[in-house]
Amino acid sequence: MTAEIIDGKAIAATIRGEIKAEVEAMQAQYGKMPGLATVLVGARKDSQAYVSMKKKACAEAGITSFAHDLPADISQADLLKIVQDLNANPDVHGILVQLPLPDHIDDEEILGAISIEKDVDGFHPLNIGRLSMKRREPLFVPCTPRGCIELLDRTGVKIEGKEAVVLGRSNIVGLPVAMLLLHRNATLTICHSRTKDLPGVVRRADILIAAVGRAEMVKGDWVKPGAVVIDVGTNAVDDPTAKKGYRLTGDVDFDEVKEVASAISPSPGGVGPMTIAMLLRNTMDSAKRAVGMK
Ligand code: NDP
Questions:
Q1: Which residues are catalytic?
Q2: Could you tell me the distance, in angstroms and rounded to a whole number, from the CA of residue 81 to the centre of ligand 1?
Q3: Which CATH architecture has domain 31-116?
Q4: What is the CATH number of domain 143-272?
Q5: pLDDT above 90: residue 1
Q6: 72, 75, 89, 113 - which has most CB atoms within 10 Å?
Q7: What are the residue ranges of CATH 3.40.50.10860 in the chain?
Q8: 218 lines ligand 1 (CB under 6 A)
Q9: b/e per residue, 39-51, with b = 16+ CB within 10 A?
């Protein structure tokens, strides 16, 4: 069997087009534009690259960016003040603080200071609480987990009643994506570094979400024939033949697993583009709430 490749780039492009149309409708009806503030502290190359991709995607969709590129030695109090000012700015509908923050910054305090109404990353503990509880709606579904579910939905994969295995239990990916699958009535198993017989547990999955941060760990014989596999992993591995000296790869051994699965999202080119599309989606949803647009 050769799996259907779930093309995250193409699906994300469709979603970005849908958002652009909504931005135009908002401007026509309400004379307002959605706005996203990005807060970048320091000069980490990877963080700069992520923020610049997000700003570019905003510009393409017609979302206004408010960029705050701050020195690495900014004080806790000054950073807090910037977040508070953004909370109070009615043109800003989403606030994104790029992680990681420098060591001297208490990131829990900074993230906790973002107004829950503008927390488009969805990491606020109150928001995660609502996401985890039955019959409670979070204001925002965190972008990467939301992107995983969108990939399944837009590929026509039924979730209800399926055995879903999530590999990883981090606050930003594993845990929220597991909660989303549970609310969609999957039967859920969450694996982590202490799980015994990982390949045996993973082999139960009709739907496998791999978010572990270990290059190509999931092998072909870990996967049930016909399973749907979403690879969240983004790992840099040395590659002297590549221009930068490294290449990016997922948590799944793509070449092996594509021969066993019925569908697979590659990495890169799967969840990554969806994460950015979902950030735009969350910003747009927040702006719609602010202006009262259906
Ligand atoms: P974390 O390091 O926060 O969490 C990794 C999880 O995997 C932990 O729960 C850990 O278990 C588990 N784990 C680690 N090693 C093993 C092992 N050998 N066997 C079983 N479980 C293990 O990572 P993130 O959740 O932040 O990210 C996961 C991957 O997803 C990374 O490659 C990251 O780059 C990528 N990512 C991609 C995004 C995208 O937009 N495409 C966005 C965010 C992340 P334990 O809890 O026991 O320590």
A1: 54, 98, 121
A2: 32
A3: 3-Layer(aba) Sandwich (3.40)
A4: 3.40.50.720
A5: no
A6: 113
A7: 31-116
A8: no
A9: bbbbeeeebeebb
